[in-house]
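Let's see one such:

===
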Amino acid sequence: MNPPRRRALARTGSAIALSVAAAAAAAVAAAAAPAIAATPASAAGSRARPAAAGWRVARTISARGHSVLLGGIDAVSASDAWAGGVSLPANGDGNGRPLIEHWNGRAWHQVALPVKAARRLSNGQFHGTVGASSARDVWAFSEAGSYLRLDGTRWTFGELPGYRAGKTVIFTIKVFGPDDTWVFGTRPAGPVSKAKFTPYAARFNGRTWTSVQVPGTGILSTVSALSAGDMWALTGSQAAGSGAPAPTPGVVHWNGRAWRAAPTQPRLPKNGMLSGIVALAPHDVWVGGSAPNSKAGTSELARHWNGRAWTNASPRSAPTANDYYLADLTPDEHGGLWALGAEISGPERFWHYSDGSWQAPGKSSWQVLELEAIPHSGSTWALAANADLTVGLILLHGPRPS
């Protein structure tokens, strides 16, 4: 997979490509548009310093003759975080080598993986999907459904029941403990050129995997968990500018017993899309995406659930011909939000929401892919790459966690 293709996949964690032998289609996340209710003061832009201020490189990962691309990160605590990615040959030949990085409260270091098991994981198209509940309970999933699991001190290889490349495509993982792990993605049906996608979820109870029904259509690629019994997710997510047919996006909720469509859905304008979701509390949920603008491009869109209704909370910026969308949202650990304004051809820009308003966006010199709050630390990790997409970067905002 070439670096531009990988970049589009990693940035949103929800692009896909499906062929008979391997993954190959595309879809991601993007979102909606103009007002639903009167635009609240909280959506207004501010003259504060650009939101990119304060971000810095905490870890640089490179390999001679290879491009290193990171695709997923999960912070368990201030002293325990995991990032996944792949080291691809510069000539583009082959699937590359899986990489897993661990933060132990002092430094990031690369984790040694069993060679044969790592090779089998890469054959399933591993792009960095990782999740953990502790330093002794870690999972790394390929798109096709094969995985490596750290159970205590030993990595083992496994596959979802009915494993077959192209049958199920995995994008997201949530790990609550050794006996409660979820994976999310999509199941394609029909020929590649006319494939239809349905949401997919499966749960591990410590012994077996069981498929769990999720309402909606399209891809299930972004999930936010308040607890094991309270999760929020998007179905039908897609990135602005991806060119793929847009399914109807929807918000779904796990109540501890079943997935249900949220009784009230955010209203979106024509051709509006959703791409990211974050739940801060049961009555404090945000979704992000894109809306068409007056310059034939798209602008970032946000909607906020206050427990009674979805309100427009979109950041304001001058419209351009670029296809911007809010690709990722995460708490800033200070009562606000970080949001990533992505664009298929780049560059990305950081948005920061605090004290009831969005700060002016700050553009970065990196290709930013994903944001991750660091629990109880006041800090945030981000995955990124250098300008030519050859070096993997882990960024940090706030104090160094430990």
The radius of gyration is 19 Å. Residues 300 and 325 are 4 Å apart (CA to CA). The longest helix spans residues 3-12.
